[in-house]
Design goal:
This protein is an alpha+beta fold. The protein is built from 4 helices and 10 strands; from the N terminus they run αβββββααβββββα. A 10-stranded antiparallel beta sheet has the order 5-1-2-3-4-10-6-7-8-9. It is globular, with a radius of gyration of 16 Å. The N and C termini lie far apart (about 45 Å).
């Protein structure tokens, strides 16, 4: 898979990445921005051809890569018609996972984190205490604080930030945080 991912990165090919065997028809579409031996960074594109945040996943969880299908051609056409361009200056290239976690923590950005295949149940705000532990102030689907959880970064199989769902949760959270219940 590494070779295919690097080809997609080098040639700026819109790619569908499948990495959840529990939801076989679930995939992320986007442009591969960085690939290491362990991680892949994707600039995600929505079905409407709009930027949908960044995602990092472990390479060893990817079981299928698709390019140039009818669906991908449609998404790419919408992307181009809307003036989309592949991000060139992303700050997450060197160590995609840790760089993305740090960016989310520094900028108080809502993140969606999966710790095992099929369970993206941790959503909220990343708090990094050190390189060995990640804590998240969890936010529920209504934008309410829902406790804090901590885990090791190596347990993360997938993380997404700046996606439409996360931005909606961030709006709800900030609305509630400012005294509106």
């Amino acid at each position: 898979m590494l070779e295919l991912l690097r080809e997609c990165e080098d040639n700026k090919i819109l790619t569908a990445v499948y990495n959840n065997r529990n939801a076989y028809d679930s995939f992320s579409v986007g442009y591969v921005l960085a690939v290491t031996e362990e991680e892949m960074l994707l600039a995600r594109i929505s079905p409407r051809g709009e930027f949908d945040g960044y995602a990092v996943c472990r390479v060893d969880t990817i079981f299928r890569i698709e390019t140039d299908g009818a669906y991908l051609r449609k998404v790419e056409l919408l992307w181009k018609l809307k003036g989309g361009a592949v991000p060139e200056d992303t700050p997450f290239i060197d160590e995609p996972l840790m760089d993305l976690l740090q960016f989310a923590a520094d900028n108080h950005i809502n993140a969606s984190i999966c710790l095992e295949e099929g369970s993206c149940i941790i959503g909220g705000y990343v708090e990094l205490s050190d390189q060995e532990r990640v804590c998240v102030l969890q936010v529920d689907e209504f934008g309410r604080e829902n406790g804090r959880t901590c885990f090791y970064p190596e347990e993360i199989t997938r993380i997404a930030i700046l996606d439409a769902e996360g931005q909606d949760l961030d709006m709800l959270y900030r609305y509630r945080k400012n005294g509106e219940k």
